Amino acid sequence: MKKYFLLLLIAAVSYARQPELALIPQPVEVKESHGVFLLTASSSIGYNDPAAQHVAVMLSGKLSVPTGYALNTQQGNGGTIQFVLNASHDAKLGQEGYTLVSTPERVVITANRPAGLFYGMQTLLQLLPKEIESKTVVKGDWTIPAVSITDYPRFPWRGIMLDVARNFYTKADVKTFIDQIAKFKYNTFQWHLTDDEGWRLEIKALPRLTSVGAWRVPRIGYFGQRAAPKPGEAATVGGFYTQADVKEVIAYAAERFITVIPDIDIPGHSMAALAAYPELSCTKDMSIRVSPGMHFADWYGNGTFKMFVDNTYNPSDENVYHFLDKVFTEVAAVFPSPYIHVGGDECYKGYWSNNDGCIALMKKLKIRHVEDLQGYFMDRINTILASKGKKMLAWDEILDGGSAPGVTVMSWRSVKTGIEASRLGHDVVMTP
Questions:
Q1: What residues are annotated to the active site?
Q2: Percentage of residues in the chain with pLDDT exceeding 70?
Q3: pTM of the full predicted structure?
């Protein structure tokens, strides 16, 4: 009986304990105090510098929907919620850090840069009751616990990828996704725009990339198990973004301090592009269609595989480089990001090894292994990107072919490949 009483007492004490603040990501330092700040219709939002106005207005808009309050925003230091840009740089906070101090009287968010204020705003929203996410007015008390928070990121690159190639997401969907990742302080959005199952970006000089490459036949079920397109079957599933759409999304992300990086997968993963321009493949197979998620390769469990359909550009064909120059000219013009992601992963070399042009190119370059042709191909692409003022970003397979210096590597196959890339002098984004 004593044991049961002791267990009940422990449970009661645990239950009565103040719950920990539910903040994602967890801040560097949190000190809780007593009391709460009560947000009311008479609350106001202030900012000490015009550069902070954007975040103040954004917070007012976010709070207005669930609370029904039309909170005034004004420059000065009198806001009950106050945004403060430091006059002198606080080295501890860096470019994206912030402090948030809430008391029963007011809330003050301080940072060196507007990005820090934005991340402080996201933490403020998480401190409010969960109903702050409501799309309609909710009656109740809007309280913020008294707390002192210091926060700054461990990693300058906090990225997340959305694959719109295999399944198309509308522009509105993408904006919603950006809103969600902004809540959790991601600052890099990798937009996977092309793959075997679809080409999603308008390239004005190459209209078939979207008129053909953006559409596949309707299928349901697991990818890799769907039926292949039938002769004459209409391709009705898909979609693409105009360059105007893309610019709109980029601007939307920039308002949330997120950099958008385009992802154009080459030299493999290119079945959708080759369905539109089959002459750029080694096989020049006119029957290539955009994959609906069919079984088109056997994987052997050790990283090797065999393709049944040619989904790879021909590295010996100069027309390929003219084609990709046109692609990257328009990509570079639309995306302000310093990086363009070019894939480089899972490139099947079987069609290369049997192609007369590739064999002749290997002899000319004194290359013994067909794998090294990818290094040649990616070097050519690196030169094209550099001519547009862009840096190459690619998956870690790019190292297998002896990639050029200066390429930034995304290590997805293992931690080890990222460490090796770093030792070779590459900047590395770890995504194992």
A1: 195, 269, 346
A2: 95
A3: 0.92
